[in-house]
């Protein structure tokens, strides 16, 4: 748990192979801090936490041992008495969350059939769409998607509904994915299929990374042709100083942890007093557009990077939460 200043710390449970316990711990701490800033900037009454279940490289877990690990994890979450709420993440599934819920009620994002908010990906896609519009408005004066071009990398759970929404809004979409099976989805959308390297340097209005993180670095940024980068992928910057490199090159970067908060905003809607309602959740996700506009405008006015402006807002909101809990 990194912070409970704004509310219970919420973050997914990662089931992953690590070289040693120290690497697993470091990952949990790094990811939990990221959740603090993501939820704070989204204005959610949540703190930042993350769970890690460590397996060993090359270790094949039997179904029974995997179940035991999940139940042990559930017992651990129960011991924290609600100050940490777990959810799905890399290496865990909705079915795994149902198993963990046998031991603790502090599980969010269960399947809709089990009373949860279900798959967050379409909500994440909606938040990224609003972020792209906000970045277009900041850069060109108009949020309009019609007639714009977008190169989207990663046609997965988030990328596919996002590409669908972009084409529906009249944008020309280029798509890249390492999985050739995705080509059929791209064709069905009328999107042009390109290689990932081509997408990275395409002359488009927006580059939209929706696969893995770390794709913006000292090599890729100088080669970018798109004036805007806005996508769902987590941790797009290889390091924080790449934010300065993007700004110096005149590329407007929509901070990833602001743009991709739609999933957590949807999960947070489970905690609303009236219970979960998908329409209300979608309305809250659309507010990402307002937050992104504010961050990009603040950054431009103060002459700082969008990352610095987003972090300043996140830190302000955590401090407000801490003051409210102590008073
Ligand atoms: N699912 C969510 O609600 C959510 C929320 C917040 C952030 N994110 C982030 O958004 C990104 C996408 O998430 P997702 O749930 O859609 O994942 P996903 O696994 O469903 O989709 C990722 C897609 O990217 C492709 N891909 C992987 N490596 C690639 C590469 N090097 N080049 C091109 N394509 C590549 C995969 O084949 C896959 O189709 C991730 O970084 C994730 O952490 C997702």
From TrEMBL:
Record: active site: 50 (proton donor/acceptor)
GO BP term, example: amino acid metabolic process
SUPFAM superfamilies: Aminoacid dehydrogenase-like, N-terminal domain, NAD(P)-binding Rossmann-fold domains
Binding site residues for NAD(+): 154-159
Keywords: NAD, Nucleotide-binding, Oxidoreductase
TM annotation in the entry: none
Keyword hit for Oxidoreductase: yes
Assigned EC number: 1.4.1.23, 1.4.1.9
Enzyme class: oxidoreductase
InterPro entries linked to this entry: Aminoacid_DH-like_N_sf (IPR046346), Glu/Leu/Phe/Val/Trp_DH (IPR006095), Glu/Leu/Phe/Val/Trp_DH_C (IPR006096), Glu/Leu/Phe/Val/Trp_DH_dimer (IPR006097), Glu/Phe/Leu/Val/Trp_DH_bac/arc (IPR016211), NAD(P)-bd_dom_sf (IPR036291)
Organism domain of life: Bacteria
Family recorded in the similarity comment: Belongs to the Glu/Leu/Phe/Val dehydrogenases family.
Name used for this protein in its record: Branched-chain amino acid dehydrogenase [deaminating](EC)
Originating organism: uncultured Solirubrobacteraceae bacterium
